[in-house]
Amino acid sequence: MKWNPKFLIVSIGNPLPKYESLHSAGHFALNGLAKALPHPPFRETTIGGQQYLISQGPKYTLVQSPTLMNVSGGFVSRVWKQMLKQHDAESLSLVIVHDELERDLGVVKLVPWERSPRGHNGMKSIKNSVSQKSYPVSPLARIAVGIGRPRERDPDSVSRYVLAQISGAQQRVLEEEAPFEIIKRLSELEDEWRTAVED
Fold first, then answer.
1. Phi then psi for 95, rounded to 5 degrees?
2. Is the Cβ–Cβ distance between 64 and 117 less than 8 Å?
3. How high is the pLDDT of residue 40?
């Protein structure tokens, strides 16, 4: 049987348009990804009484988490389990797109699922709800989108930086440049997956 990989790509952050900050970089990048692929426009749908945005294509299903960043886990777990009802686990991958303080604005990196969240509360929440051990045949991965960081490293300065209103220039980088890098990282992930399947 021909291998036909599918990807559930979920961005996490604080909900747009209410919270237009760097902390929602994943959402901005996912908006741009839908255009770069190109994909149908996002539409509203519901799971467990919770509304969220989805853009469905033949290979990629793009979903914006509607929750606050720090409590992303429950929603991600629900939408992942819903996808598993529609597709064979061996052909389905979960990818989380999130902001990353340690990288410059717009720099995109494929991150192993098992790597430490490094204080990222959104990923902590998700990893408490979705375990690789529970889905051994499904590749779980993270794509980190750089947002830079302030010179001061104290928690209050970092919090102000990530939650401040995003500038137009920053938003353009996340929506118009980062998505093409995300496509490259998804291709890398698929190549690694294909190698594992063929071996």
1. -125, 125
2. no
3. 95
Burial of 107 (0-12, 13-18, 19+ CB in 10 A): middle
pLDDT score at 1: 61
Phi-psi category of residue 140: left, alpha or beta, with phi > 0 → left and psi -120 to 50 → alpha: beta
In the block, residue with structure tokens 């995109």:
108
For tokens 């440049």, the residue is: 177
Helix (H) / strand (E) containing 58: none
Predicted TM-score (pTM) of this structure = 0.96
- Which residue do the tokens 């929750």 mark? 67
Residues 6+ apart with CB under 8 A from 84: 92, 135, 138
Average pLDDT of span 92-109: 96
**Nearest CA among 99, 88, 156 for reference residue 123:** 99
Residues 6+ apart with CB under 8 A from 121: 69, 70
